[in-house]
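Worked Example 4.2. Read the sequence first, then its structure tokens.
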Amino acid sequence: MELSQRLDLAKFGFDTPGDESDTQDIARDGDAFAQLCALLVKIGVVEDAQEISADDTLDGLDADSLTQIEFVVRAEDHFGVRINEELFASWDTLGDMAKYLAP
């Protein structure tokens, strides 16, 4: 089951998955890592995307579990993919996630 199916973000005051306004201001022409960094800025994990390296983890950036789920749901919407728990758990770093999501 995809993470976005397990949690209705609207119940927590977040935008609903599939709402294009979630990610429309994030350029889709940059590399996947830059887009992930922009998502992390958008949801308030960091203030500046330059603070993030490909070797960082969400835990290392002090993202709590709900923030991590919000990040994955927004990444699913932005990249047009579904990310299940096993896939998410297989990525050690944000760089690993970016490699998977790169076209």
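Now turn to a second chain, presented in exactly the same format:
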Amino acid sequence: MAIEFYVKLRDQTDLFLTAVLLVNAEWVRDTDDGWSMYLCSEEAYAQLSKKFPGRAKRS
């Protein structure tokens, strides 16, 4: 089952996190307040949260 979550990239140089997102998640849309919404599995979200603490929030 896919879950929705939001990530706020610091700037365009945040390439490692961007690469991880491209492999593990599906981009949905950008919000007006600077967050990007993605869909991924529970397992992928757990891995992202572990590698990038505080950078993602579930909807």
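Notes for the reader: The chain has one domain: 2-54. The chain has two helices and four strands.
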